[in-house]
Amino acid sequence: MKKIKPNFSINEIGKKQFYFGLVIGLGYSIIFNYLLRLVTMFANFSLSRKNPYFVNYENFIFSQFTLNLIGFSSVCIGFTFTTFIWLSKLDFKNKKLNIRKKFGQANSIFILFVCLLFLIRLWNFFIQNPISLENDFGIYCYLLPTFLFLFNWNLINRIYKSQKVILVLIPFIITIGKILSVN
């Protein structure tokens, strides 16, 4: 007998849990947006000529490419926490579904921290070598946030029937990323 996956809906996840996941994901998106902007500023700092003990940010300007990358990355990181909360509702009648949900929760947070570890190692490399993301890598910079989003969506898709929801979610994530990329 083949078990059919449940449909991805607000009632299946739970209304409070669904909206709480959206709010927490948006909150983490805003936090990581500011965090990634600060990290980018610290990676490109210069010492002031008047007093060499103070950091000078007067001439530092983010390019639109960098702002878009930071905005889209922060939204994908926030979606990881949304996925974690959406998968936290346990159903005591279906043991296999609970195992899949716990697996999805653990993998979503694990892949987030693997990506953050990769970014920290990459940041150390960029400090030592003068490389411009926009000129040297171009569109390839968007692969890591795209991977993070699609990995988390694949975890949801393994548990629920959710093929059509991604058509609504992708424009929503791009819109929130563009809003966060406003200077």
What is the count of β-strands?
Answer: 2
Tally of individual helices: 7
Amount of beta strand = under 5%
Structural class: mainly alpha
H/E element sequence: HHEEHHHHH
What strand order characterises the main sheet?
1-2
Largest sheet: 2 strands, antiparallel
Shape: elongated
Which regions contain 5 or more consecutive residues with pLDDT less than 50? none
**Mean model confidence by pLDDT:** 84
Cα radius of gyration in angstroms: 19 Å
What gap, in angstroms, lies between the N and C termini?
Answer: 55 Å
Notes on the protein architecture:
By secondary structure, this protein is mostly helical. Helices cover 70% and strands 2% of the residues. It contains seven helices and two strands, in the order H-H-E-E-H-H-H-H-H. A two-stranded antiparallel ribbon has the order 1-2. A hairpin with a 7-residue loop joins strand 1 and strand 2. Helix 3 packs antiparallel against helix 4 and helix 3 (64-86) runs parallel beside helix 6.
